Amino acid sequence: MEGVQPASKWFRERQQDDFEIGFRVAKTLFAAESPYQRVEIVQTAGHGAMLINDGVVMAAERDEFVYHEMIAHVPLFVHPRAARVLVIGGGDGGTAREVLKHPEVARVVLVEIDAVVVQACRRFLPSLSVAFEDPRLELVIADGVAFAARTTERFDVVIVDSSDPVGPAEGLFDRTFYGSLARLLRDGGILVTQAESPFYDQALQTAMFNAQREFFRRLHLYLYSNLTYPGGLWAFAFASQGLCPLRDFDAPRFARWPAAMRYYNAGVHRAAFMLPEFVRKRYAAILDPLPSI
Amino acid sequence: MEGVQPASKWFRERQQDDFEIGFRVAKTLFAAESPYQRVEIVQTAGHGAMLINDGVVMAAERDEFVYHEMIAHVPLFVHPRAARVLVIGGGDGGTAREVLKHPEVARVVLVEIDAVVVQACRRFLPSLSVAFEDPRLELVIADGVAFAARTTERFDVVIVDSSDPVGPAEGLFDRTFYGSLARLLRDGGILVTQAESPFYDQALQTAMFNAQREFFRRLHLYLYSNLTYPGGLWAFAFASQGLCPLRDFDAPRFARWPAAMRYYNAGVHRAAFMLPEFVRKRYAAILDPLPSI
What we know:
By secondary structure, the first copy, chain A, is α/β, with parallel strands linked by helices. Chain A has helices spanning 64-76, 94-99, 115-124, 126-129, 144-150, 175-184, 202-213, 251-255, 266-271, 277-282; strands spanning 3-5, 10-15, 19-33, 38-44, 49-53, 56-60, 84-89, 107-112, 137-141, 155-161, 185-194, 218-225, 233-240.
């Protein structure tokens, strides 16, 4: 059985009906039906507090640093000076927290569709939602697709920190949305999107890349090990009109970085773009080639 | 509940009692109590046939290429000419299969403690156990620790393809064993050992590295994404008396490689040694430094 089960005290998430990942639950901290989804935060036995939307793990305190460092720092250390950053989704605050560590970032607009996620995380995931205390952040509770279509503001980096493409995040994987995002990026801008699993979500990734390809001259995929998503090996897509994630990576800026990171470093940045052979081959016709490091 | 459950048709493996990974089981193909462990091979719904020893996933047809390519090709593309290779454990044959793809390998000795594992895999995992048909391979059914202590043969590469350090594999994580292995390596030899998870098995990894450090002048850790082991991010240890896994990597030889691999390539080889910051920092005093790629 899926979902949080009071009797067994295990939360289990299914991946394509043949594979699952489970966490022992000590206590349910929050549970509500929002207008968009079921939002739960549970205290796990081994992974800290964990946000679960519609039965799918979004973030757990113990390892959220992996996902949030990789979605935020890769584009920000490639863009020469990202002053304005748009985050779509990411209502837990973790992505914005990492973005706001960059002193060159003057303004972050975070567009989350579900106010209940923000409220729950502000109360029970303070190490992520700390981002909302930063005066550089503006929180907009709105549909990201509609926001992207109508906003007149322009951004240097756009990060789509979405859940899976079912339920409220469905439109975030659509070509119309990528067209809007391409339009609201300033010259030299970068788009990074949550791109699911290269092992389990091949059809979805192919559709996503084909859609992004229409609007971006450069398209890459980079990988990281997500410990609390099924299968471990997960991906982000990196799209730009020219900036290269390896050639334009500002390693000297990273070397001067004052604060410790927990997952990201210069080696990890470059290594993330070295795709395993089955991934590289599958997308060789869609993604831009990169030299082997 | 752990183990293969006929009623629910799910096999679940626990990691440290608070985290589990589960696979839908279509059918049990083989189940026996060997003198050493419970050996099962099940047909999963999504991952092909899967070998399970004492309730722990060893290998699944769908993704075994990741583990076996990474344990075998990393040392073999660093060693300039590995003629003799010793594999300890690996009774499914997958590691030996990858080793035997190298034309310079004249002889492989595979020492597996449990004949039941070999018999079961020969019948139900033929894509792995194909290695046993190669005339260059000698299969020895024996305790790897005792074999390493007494053999007079010398090897260029030793691969310890072990299960977790409980049950029959316990001695494979012991310092006495590493002393034996250091002694039976020829000059310029390389030892690679299965090194568990850098996220979940930190105390074990520290003990393993400290034990190997006594006998090897160079010690490194490299990572890969194991899709069917809990947590996804898993590790191998690389030990030598001087060969460096980056500087001595024979990329031109890989470029001439005739057959397609599915995970390993030159970029993946180098990327595997780029440790996430939390791993790099923890082992900075034990492991040798490597330049960032």
